[in-house]
Write a structure and sequence with these properties.
The chain has 155 residues and is mainly α. 58% of the residues lie in helices and 6% in strands. It has a two-stranded parallel ribbon.
């Protein structure tokens, strides 16, 4: 086990790493299509978990088949879905603010696309153990709620 030198954790190297990852994912999506990106994410997560890493996957997982595939592949390891929600008007305001402030954002979604995705979202069932986080409440409330859930699961 060799550790990286401290300078590798600087903002400069973090930004370089994320930039490479963004290019890699864009390449994968363009080459493989969206369906295959879930397989790639799932298999990469399995490999990292088997190597002892903790993994957080950031993807919309709006289809039950993708969530089931992930859970089956990673079994017997626990999988916890965190479902972020907000009132539609708040989502629209956030998107407008991002656009006005010209904030760099990897998403190119329009409000119509977001609405369409929300309407076609396949709800979680009780076996998927999803934690719902309402992003319209304070960050502190959400952090405390997550801590309580994780503490309960670990005991």
């Amino acid at each position: 086990d060799s550790k990286l030198p401290p300078e590798m954790y600087s903002d400069h190297w973090t930004e370089k790493t994320y930039k490479k990852l963004r290019y890699a994912f864009c390449f994968l999506i363009n080459r493989c299509g969206c369906q295959h990106i879930y397989i790639y994410i799932r298999d990469t997560a399995k490999m990292l978990l088997e190597d002892g890493w903790s993994v957080i996957l950031v993807a919309k997982y709006d289809r039950r088949r993708h969530r089931c595939s992930l859970v089956e592949t990673l079994s017997p390891l626990p999988v916890r879905f965190v479902h972020l929600v907000a009132p539609l008007e708040q989502i629209k305001k956030r998107m407008e603010m991002r656009s006005m402030q010209q904030i760099k954002d990897p998403s190119d979604a329009t409000f119509d696309l977001v609405t369409s995705q929300l309407n076609s979202f396949e709800n979680f069932d009780s076996s998927e153990k999803a934690v719902v986080i309402d992003t319209s409440v304070s960050e502190h409330e959400n952090v405390e709620a997550l801590k309580a859930i994780l503490t309960e699961e670990m005991s």
